[in-house]
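WARN no homologs supplied; continuing
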Amino acid sequence: MNQKELKELIDFLIEKDISEFELERGDVKVRIKRGAASVPVVSYVAPAVSQSAPGVHSAQSAATVAVSAEPPPVVDQGLHMVKSPIVGTFYEAPGPGALPFVKPGDMVKAGQVLCIIEAMKLMYEIESDMAGEVIKILVSNGQPVEYGQPLFAIRPSNK
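OK structure emitted
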């Protein structure tokens, strides 16, 4: 499997929104896992050619190439994370061209709509489960999100 085939495979998996894929063909193993940040993580193990016998593949001398996403940023421990209750697409505003529901620095109340997640052509309003200040929005508009993925960091209010 060459680089072009790998790229085509990754593009296909992104297009079909497949988060994990594994292929084993003889001595070649390909495992692709898309993380929360929508950056594909690719592990590719290809047999290396043995020095002693040209053309003979040795499983012991396999080379591994790995491309992985950066680790998620560290967030203050005093912050509350609002997490996605479903898998879908994150939208920060009620429609294209509309103002976002919230932005960093905004004070929110419990029950206030923070964003919309689209899943299977349905729009789900995601509400804050506590009052406080929005410190950071952890995903980008239009980004796919996973179940349990943190969406917002909120500093609880002292009220």
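The first helix runs from residue 3 to 15.
OK
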